[in-house]
Amino acid sequence: MLFDPKGRRYLLTLRQDGSFAYHRGTLAHSEIVGREAGVVLVSSGGERLVALRPRLADYVLKMSRGATVLYPKDVGPLLVWADIAPGSVVVEAGTGSGALAMALVRAVGPQGRVVSVERREDHAAIAKARIEAFFGEIPSNLELRIGEVAEVAPEVEPDRLVLDIPEPFGVVEVAAGSGLQSGGVFCSYVPTVPQMAQTAAALDDAGCFVDIVQFEVLHREWVAHGRSLRPSQQMVGHTGFLTVARKTAPLVAAED
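-> structure tokens emitted (256 positions)
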């Protein structure tokens, strides 16, 4: 990723014979390949460009995609509230453009496992390409499947079920059965209030979920340059609602 003096960002896929062109000139990819991260380069138009390896947040926001991605502001809280940690076994649906799958893979580590399920073959193909482009290959702890999460989850028996689909409430019954381990975490992401309300109602009706929490995350940056100290004129407001719940074990009858 190249940064110009005005903070504009340009995401590149480096090729030895490639060239980057923009309104302030060109820069050969060969000038970047093999250099240390943070190197300062100069375009043919005399403008300074800083070359850095993109963070996942940079890549997700700049990559070409099919399905809408979760914003980084939502991914961070999701990982924390769903308690995605090294060694976790996660079933995710749907894969979309692969943004959340990449974050989950990093969070579970090599000891963990992520099975990402997508029902649309076109979205699955885009996600596979984007994930390979970021990691260089499909990580060994990630399995990409085309199908229905209601069929995959009981087979995998995850301890975390993460849903970015239009009707997560339709998967609650599966999660209440063998689709989620006892003590596991159910987490869904939806854009509208009715979807959020239906998910909460389904979790309540299932009778085996506790600590149900629903929230949204707003992200506002600040400008702090010299005497200028103010909120940014633009902010990332509502994007979606997160619902998080924990599954209980079956009731054990007290002994007489």
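The first strand starts at residue 2 and ends at 3.
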